Amino acid sequence: MTLKFRLINILKHKCFWLILIILGIIIKLILLPVKTGDSVYFLAWINFIKTNGYFSSLKYGFYDYSPPYIYILIIISKIGLNPLYSIKIVSIAFEYLAAYYIGKITLLKYKSNITSWIALAVIPILPTVLLNSSYLSQCDSIYSAFALGSVFFMLKKQQLLAVLFLGISISFKMQAVMLLPFFFIMMLRKKIYWYYFLIIPMVFIFSLLPAWLYGRTLKELLNIYISQTDHFHFLTMNFPNLYIWISNEYYQSVKLAGMVFTAIFTLFTGYWISKIKTVFTLELWVKLAFLSSIVIPFILPGMHERYMFLGDILGVLYYLVVRKNIHFPIGIILVSFYSYIRCSKYNDILPMEPAFIVYLSVIIFTTFDFIKSLNNDPDQIKK
Question: Could you please report the per-residue DSSP string of 185-243?
Answer without folding.
Answer: HHHHTTSS-GGGGGHHHHHHHHHHHHHHHTT--HHHHHTHHHHHHTTS--SBSS--SGG
